[in-house]
Design brief:
By secondary structure, the chain is mostly helical. 74% of the residues lie in helices and 8% in strands. Strands 1-3-2 form a 3-stranded antiparallel β-sheet.
């Protein structure tokens, strides 16, 4: 297959993968009784560990009041809890609960399927895949930042 055709096929597969992830996340969100913003919030805390509401607001690109509403909703579902900061007890961190971790593990699986699928690749191929995924993520982050700026400029 020609390089141009391979690039086109890879672009199609990435888009299909994005749709599949969004569909899976939507189904999991319904089962957990959460919306897409709640889901992103939980995912960020899972990736980064306990966070302040301010850090969550920045990462989610939402206002602090909107994030407080998200945290309140997730706390009512017993998916997060507020805990004192480690170094400054006045600081409040948001942490995932064991209940959410159990439910998420049951819905997402333990990750063994992905690990098993990746075992078929050599270390060099895995480095290449990591590089592509990293570049794709960075490109999407840059695009999101630009689109948010444009949206904010329109509102001004």
């Amino acid at each position: 297959m020609a390089k141009r055709d391979l690039i086109a096929e890879l672009r199609r597969e990435v888009r299909r993968a994005q749709v599949a992830v969004a569909t899976r996340d939507h189904a999991i969100g319904q089962l957990l009784a959460i919306n897409a913003t709640d889901h992103r919030c939980l995912d960020l805390i899972d990736q980064r560990g306990p966070m302040t509401a301010g850090a969550l607001a920045e990462a989610l690109r939402l206002s602090r009041s909107a994030v407080t509403t998200v945290i309140d909703r997730l706390e009512a579902l017993r998916y997060v809890r507020r805990i004192p900061g480690r170094s400054d007890r006045r600081e409040v961190l948001v942490q995932l609960t064991p209940l959410l971790l159990r439910r998420a593990r049951a819905l997402y699986g333990a990750g063994g399927d992905v690990d098993q699928a990746l075992e078929r690749y050599s270390a060099a191929e895995l480095e290449l895949i990591c590089d592509f995924v990293r570049c794709d993520r960075e490109m999407n982050e840059r695009r999101a930042t630009e689109l948010i700026r444009r949206s904010q400029a329109r509102r001004s």
